[in-house]
Amino acid sequence: MGRRRTDGDARRVRRAAALAVGAVTLAVLTAGCKAEPVGTTEPTVGPARTPAPPTGDAGPGDRPASPSAAPPAPSRTPSTRPAPRPSTLMSVGDRSTRVRELQARLRQIGHFDRSPTGYYGSATVASVRSFQGKRGLSRTGRTDTVTWERLLAMTREPTSEELDPPATEPAAVKPDPRCVEGRVLCISKNSRTLAWMIDGRVVSSMDVRFGSQYTPTREGTFSVYWKSRHHVSTLYDSPMPYAMFFSGGQAVHYSSDFAARGYDGASHGCVNVRDEGKIASLFAQVRDGDKVVIHW
User: Fold this and answer.
1) Which residues contact 172 (CB under 8 A, 6 or more apart)?
2) Residue 263 per-residue DSSP state
3) How far is 198 from 287, CA to CA, in rounded Å?
4) Paired strand residues for 254
5) Which conformational region is residue 107 in: left (phi greater than 0), alpha (psi within -120 to 50 degrees), or beta?
6) Distances 138 to 53, 98, 147, 185 between C-alpha atoms, Å
7) N or C, which end of the chain has less CB nearby within 10 Å?
8) How far apart are alpha carbons 266 and 231 in whole angstroms?
9) Given the DSSP bridges, would you call strands 143-144 and 201-209 parallel, antiparallel or unpaired?
């Protein structure tokens, strides 16, 4: 009986071993078939992808650069820089020998109708604008590098007489009969000029301006009764250099305001001169008692 029990136990052991072997075999066969639920994501390690082409817009036949090679510098089309603006050489208010040369050159080609003064005033501004307009330049009235170079190309170097011509009364304006004898400051309101005349000959001439509507310059025949080189008005507290008094408080004198503003302003009745050099020379020549004639 003991042997029969032993045989039964052996059969049970063999049956259990067979079942274990079958289970192992089944596990081995099903190990590569892992179930995935619907909608799951792709595996994180996917198939190899073709690398993107280099950013240099390589063509079909171009080979991608090696990792160690530096990427080519992008080509740039050079930008067109605007031409520099012309610089200003002379403008209103300037006083110099160069301004005198500018005026003489403009006069050579008919753009300046008076003797050069060396002062860049309203008449010079108008003349430069006229020249610029005829040449298709910007009509600024300022003499810039472009305007100056164009003027130099069209004119010649002025002579000494062109730079400082002997003054003459304008041909269209005959002197007043009261001015043809003796030493006379012959002042015309019509032409706005002062002519220093000796025995009918014009020694010098200069631009002048007069009083306003409410403070007019007197007209008639007078004489210089007092000269004051550094005079200052006691009524208006304004400087009156090279003053030559002819009627009460009215005098012929230099005016810095006239030099700066031209005919935009007016005096309080005096005869203003804007060319300081010319009136300085005139002051040295005029004597007390010389005649003054103011007329239209």
Assistant:
1) none
2) G
3) 12
4) 273
5) alpha
6) 55, 21, 9, 41
7) N
8) 19
9) unpaired
